[in-house]
Amino acid sequence: MTGHRLKLPPLARSLSARLLILTVAFVMLSEVLIYAPSIGRFRVSFLEGRLAAGHLAILALEATDDKMVTKDLEQELLDHVNAYSVALTKPEDSIKLMLMVDKPGEVDAAFDLRRGTFFGLIGDAFMSLWHTDNRVLRVVGVSPKDPGTLVDVVLDEAPMRAAMWDYSQRILALSFGIAFFTAALVYLSLHWLMVRPMRRITGSMVEFRSAPEDATISLPHSDRGDEIGIAQRELTSMQEGLRSALQQKTRLAALGTAVTKINHDLRNILATAVLVSDRLTGSDDPEVRRVTPTLLRAIDRAVNLCAQTLNFTREGPPVLDLSHFDLRDLVQDVGEELPEPADGSSVWLNRLEAGTDVEADRDQLFRVLANLGHNAIQAGATEVAVTARQSGDRFVIVVQDNGPGLPPRAREKLFQPFEGSARVDGTGLGLAIARDLMRAHGGDIELENSDADGTCFCLILPMTQSRPKLTTNGRAAA
């Protein structure tokens, strides 16, 4: 462990604070949406209460023979209703009764509760809240005591508005209480389910970045089946894969350093061995002449292995010297470098048309084609045909042989260095280097098929290269 601690953001910018604020805001928004119809209903209930009180007050008139009461009693009844006047109508009996001591002033607004709509009642309620002056209202509606009776009441708006404001304050206090209580529950739940795991994942990422090869830095196993659990397991898997790749790169870098140090001396030793072996070819001993070619081939393989290993372990992508050239001529040159069978037959079949122009690094493409040719011949192929085709904005070079095909193990790790060789004495670097060279061109190398009838590789090149060419001094041209 590196001891590096994750620096968390301040509370105001933390995910927890944002979740808390959003939860409170959303709950308050919900309360507002609930409050609007609630205040509309409260206003209707208040007015219906006045209608019911007015109906009860009118009953005092019905109890008398002449439907009349004294002025004092009439004023007392109106004070009980808190209205200027009350009128009662029974359409089926054609009866109309009224309580009114003094004629009320001009009516500012009239409302018929029988014709109220949902949004209209809400709008009337907010209109009552926004008015600061007292208005005289006339309210008509069906008596809550008798559906067949209409009650007409004239009253002041101020008492109703005061009751509505008192109701709103209680609703506001309750809403804040519900909002913060709900926010606290949601915050704790989200903090437990999301924030804490995300902090662990973030902390693991920061620690992994500081020491990617430290195997002790790893997230604990999670059995969660949700997205957080999947993300944690995928992150763990990715870290393990990346750690393994970095360890392999470290080993390759160490190998490259070692090979670089011994390459010069080893080449001198092998050069001396080559000189001595060349002298053996002139020996009079037939047995010496028989084994000398085998010895020379073994030395050549040793030199080639040293060169391949050194080139592969060099850092950075291959440097390309791009040019336009005839691909047919290049393939012809490759064929001349390949070994020929004892019967003198042609193994390397150049089936390209003259004038097949490509833009690439000629020497590097030569290496790739020569590597594929050598591999096919060493595998036992008697024919290796080279063709080409255009596929959209890509140029594809096809190398098809009639060998026995690649074994399954070689196909699984075909382009992995030191892993993808199909021969016992192979290094597995040839195809890995070929892939690096093709990708440096902006293309790739793919195994199209490999079975008992042979193996087919496709070399893919873009039709137009965007990489810089080299000048005569070895620097990239502008």
Automatic annotation (TrEMBL):
Keyword list, A-Z: ATP-binding, Cell membrane, Kinase, Membrane, Nucleotide-binding, Phosphoprotein, Transferase, Transmembrane, Transmembrane helix
PROSITE patterns, alphabetized: HAMP, HIS_KIN
Gene3D superfamilies associated with the record: 1.10.287.130, Histidine kinase-like ATPase, C-terminal domain
Domain of life: Bacteria
Main location class: membrane
Enzyme nomenclature, EC number: 2.7.13.3
Protein name: histidine kinase
Species the sequence originates in: Denitrobaculum tricleocarpae
